Amino acid sequence: MKRFEKWLRSKKIEPRRFYIGAILVSLVFILLVVINSIKDDTDNKIYLTEDAEIRTGPNASYPVLFNIREGEAFKVIGHEGKWLEVTSYDEKQKGWIAGWHTNLDIKEDENPNAQPLKGKVIVLDPGHGGGDQGAASQTGKSTLEKDMTLDTSLELKKKLEKEGAKVKLTRSDDTYVRLKDRKATGDVFISIHNDALESNKANGATVYWFHEQQEALAQTLNASIQKKGMLSNRGVRQENFQVLRQTDMPAVLLELGYISNPTDEVMIKDKNHRQIVENAIVDGLKNYFLS
């Protein structure tokens, strides 16, 4: 050290000033590194401008890994076309999202197959209503079928409209609509219900159809619900329900769990569970119209 300071003095450099200068240069270097790191992180950071999905690959045909919400932030680690490979900041979620769901200026694909529900008229029929409460809970939680079918239908309506569909409701509040009036013109008709039996052991989802031209829709929706949902599969069945019999359009009646079953009841009341089932119905309708 003394030799170094002696050398500095021989060069007419005050050692103390040299050390102070060296420290300042080091601090500036560290600051620049930090700033660049923050800038890189900011450049790679995106926000969702609407609800979306993380998929296994850069295409809408790839399976959904996670449903993600508007406002969530992700780090971009790659891209392919208009699709971004991202990871969450806790590294628990990783996959691909469509860039048009983010704050980046990316226009949505114009491929007509990307929006198979665009322009389709979907009739949603929330079962029961008003003085007709439908099935009721056996657990003392006061769960009424008429309330759950309306909640599900209103939530599903928003999802379908987001996909470009036009949605008609046979009821939009707690009113009673006669069975013969539960119809409208459209591309498909979906009646939403929750089942019940005296026994609390029955559980699961059932999809009903009546006319032959309704079976394909029933099979497609049942497959989609079973792929995503947690309700056990009670299958696809033909049944002479009036709301199905009185329309010639593709139509189904969905029994989305048993209110009389304590486990199903918890799922029926849980909004997150309903979102999963509703997303499955949307996916099923997409597959139906693409087929």
UniProtKB/TrEMBL annotation:
Annotated EC: 3.5.1.28
SMART domains: Ami_3 (SM00646), SH3b (SM00287)
UniProt entry tagged with the keyword Zinc: no
InterPro entries from the UniProt entry: MurNAc-LAA_cat (IPR002508), N-acetylmuramoyl_amidase_3 (IPR050695), SH3-like_bac-type (IPR003646)
All copies of domain SH3b, residue ranges: 42-105
Protein name: N-acetylmuramoyl-L-alanine amidase
Molecular function via GO: N-acetylmuramoyl-L-alanine amidase activity
Pfam family, one: SH3_3
